[in-house]
Write a structure and sequence with these properties.
Chains A, B: It is an enzyme of class 1 (oxidoreductase). Two copies of one chain form a homodimer. By secondary structure, chain A is an alpha+beta fold. The first copy, chain A, is built from 17 helices and 18 strands. In chain A, helix 1 runs antiparallel to helix 3, helix 9 packs across helix 11 and helix 10 crosses helix 13. The longest helix of chain A has 17 residues. The model of chain A has no long low-confidence stretch (mean pLDDT 96).
Chain lengths: 449, 449
């Protein structure tokens, strides 16, 4: 294509139209539709991004920022002719300032690579969405994970951003400080904007001290309802739990099968406490255990070594792939509802009943300490029931005061729920999009139609 | 004025042009300029606010939201002909949901009244800017306070907002959940927008368990530099301190004089630890004390009872008024700089030296655990040096990567710093203002000219 030649001339060695690149940039980890971009730009600098955007403006071709491709809502999939702007080569740690609990990084760096680079500093970056996502992508979807109940998600852990707008302008949003009241908070507007307002080119991240003392355990229950109630009891006590994850019986079975574990095949809470003192840790975890025993815990396994802890959280993070592995050749839809914590047991119950009533296979797992969990529905490709299930669950979630997505973002799949969730505020979101990107060049068709 | 008669007819018993009302709504707690509004509307409902806005649109008259009038940067002072929209009658607690750690309140409710209403629930709302500010006003300026180092400021503790736009439209921003990734974060855009984007009419607040165990102490040092270094040492250790406030020698002297205390007249840290267990509390506070002793602590006073604790924090909260009382008839300017925590001792030192070099009287106090502190400069009315001091301090702050305002907001006084702090992002803030309020009716002249 002649037009692409001009892009290749502008960015030699950085533009690919190789079929494998187009294929890997036309899909994500779960969304059932695929659509390759016209080309992939492997940007290596801010200037490369500005060059790509200038070219895109001239040719009226949309640009889709791409990090690690680990999203699951279709965020990186073109909706028509588009260029994929891959930032994975922009993966440097630019600065670590342990004395300020801060790191400055490029958007293509992954969370695991950052934590690797932090070794020896006594600090870590806590947000762990499971996949080894890029930090730019995690900011773009306001990602969170198992430790969010204690450390917060991306909005809490990104102090400032550098972004490039559709018009090529570079903005610095926020400052590397713990608090500021200096004007409108554009930083948090761009976090969660899914690449539709600008391209993230630099992140100022908040780091946390690695806890001196950690207590990690798996607590098993006879039924799912008790499990959810126990999680709520822990949260209602105000205990400073660091991780509080629910995995249902199907999930445990899948983990055992996929990873060769021999966990009791019962619904479980995977729990962790972090503390700066041994005494605090023991006091807090024994109080929480007491609460879980009162709400029906039948057995407790403690992870006593670092290896056992790593193994437990690996199992939790692999739970999605474990289930996928259990049902080869199927399609998967993961819901991502979040509700006020007291409503969580109700929603877990509702979700479980709805799976049964609709005769669907699936499992329930997630960040119940935040009121957020995922129901992974397994269907034959093209079976419309997964979508019907999702619609009913979201409807019940919104009625309980919840949100259609706690952490995965809107992408393509949840656009239809936003009008009900936000009412007239949605139209103002559209107007902000129009303000920052009047040509609709940045990731069009995501969040809004 | 005939025009105002039509407003009075629309809102009988709710519109005042009484000189005392105009006077109290034409000033704040510190800004030296006063300018009465044309009238004060005492809104009692969302409808009253919409009625006022419709009238204001028709008459092209600006509207300034007014809560408790406790801001200090000129936020509520008209810049010309304007109506003051007082929401202090909208002060109901609409709902308390202890099981979700949430309360729903009207904007005129003050933080102390909320905590009074929460008695018996075991929960509290932590943000304490000193003054008994309205919660709507606190959200409008993204206020914080002594406990922010542990519990966060308003952005962290407001889950969702209801607002009315200049055009009268009612928006619900955010949901009462712990996390959401559903589209653009308008909630945090409105928090800190200082009444320039919309009128806050309802707040969904996050509550916290009252800590079971509290340890409160005052630690004294020989000089200011040691005090700042000790505060940084505590923060750098990653200790979960709940309050970490610096009060300099002048501040202590003023407190002793104003409140009849007999604290040692030395620079001090006022410190507090919160914990769910006694063991944790003791372990953490003794580690922190060790650090402070290593960095030069010369004496430590412990507040052993609830009364002693209350007295200590009353002293801290009254420190501003204590200094004002020490120098009657003067003018006061309070800076509000915040820097990355490792830069805080440098900035404290700089501020202290600059006061001396300029021959100014003043004191230094504040939330050093957040890298945020205030220098209160005392001058003869009209002395331009206070402003010169502020400019130099902000310039040094920005060079250290900091912000011109950690918690007081921009108002009138800090508009001139925003261009340097935000660069081209400031123009995008202006465009967002233009989008939401094209007639420039809502608190014009604040944040931007």
């Amino acid at each position: 294509m002649v037009m692409l030649d001009s892009l290749k001339n502008l960015l030699p060695q950085k533009v690919s139209t190789a079929p494998t690149d187009l294929e890997t940039h036309g899909k994500d980890e779960s969304y059932p539709v695929r659509h390759p971009p016209l080309a992939v730009v492997f940007a290596e600098s801010l200037t490369d991004i500005q060059t790509t955007l200038a070219w895109a403006r001239e040719h009226h071709l949309p640009v889709i920022p791409f990090g690690a491709g680990t999203s699951i809502e279709g965020h990186v999939i073109p909706q028509g002719r588009a260029i994929s702007l891959d930032v994975s080569r922009m993966n440097r740690v630019l600065e670590v300032r342990p004395q300020d609990f801060m790191a400055v990084v490029e958007p293509g760096l992954t969370r695991k690579a950052l934590n690797e680079a932090l070794k020896g500093t006594g600090l870590f970056f806590p947000v762990d969405p499971g996949a080894d996502a890029s930090l730019g992508g995690m900011a773009a979807t306001n990602a969170s994970g198992t430790t969010t109940v204690r450390y917060g998600g991306m909005r809490h852990n990104v102090l400032a951003l550098q972004v490039v707008l559709a018009n090529g302008q570079v903005l610095e949003l926020g400052r590397g400080v713990r608090k500021t009241s200096a004007g409108y908070n554009l930083k948090d507007l761009f976090i969660g904007s899914e690449g539709t307002l600008g391209i993230i080119t630099r992140l100022f991240l908040k780091l946390h001290p690695i806890p001196e003392h950690i207590h990690t355990l798996r607590v098993f229950f006879d039924d799912l309802s008790d499990t959810a109630q126990a999680a709520y009891a822990v949260m209602a006590s105000g205990m400073p739990v660091a991780r509080l994850e629910l995995v249902d019986e199907v999930g445990i079975r899948a983990i055992n099968h996929y990873l060769g574990r021999s966990y009791p095949e019962k619904p479980a809470l995977f729990v962790e406490f972090h503390s700066s003192t041994k005494e605090a840790l023991e006091a807090e975890s024994s109080m929480a255990l007491g609460l879980m025993q009162e709400t029906g815990a039948i057995s407790i396994d403690t992870a006593r070594t670092q290896e056992e802890r790593t193994a437990q959280w690996e199992a939790r993070h692999q739970a999605y792939w474990a289930l996928v592995n259990l049902f080869p050749g199927k399609e998967y839809l993961s819901t991502d509802t979040a509700v006020p914590i007291s409503r969580m047991p109700d929603l877990v119950e509702y979700s479980s009943r709805l799976l049964r009533e609709m005769g669907l296979t699936g499992n329930i797992l997630g960040h119940v300490g935040d009121g957020n969990f995922h129901t992974l529905v397994v269907c034959e490709p093209g079976d419309p029931r997964a979508e019907v299930f999702s619609e009913r669950l979201v409807e019940h979630t919104l009625a309980l005061g919840g949100t259609c997505t706690g952490e995965h973002g809107v992408g393509l799949r949840k656009k239809k729920y936003l009008s009900k969730e936000h009412g007239p505020a949605l139209d103002w979101m559209r107007q902000i999009k129009q303000l920052f990107d009047p040509q609709n060049l940045l990731n069009p068709g995501k969040i809004f139609d």
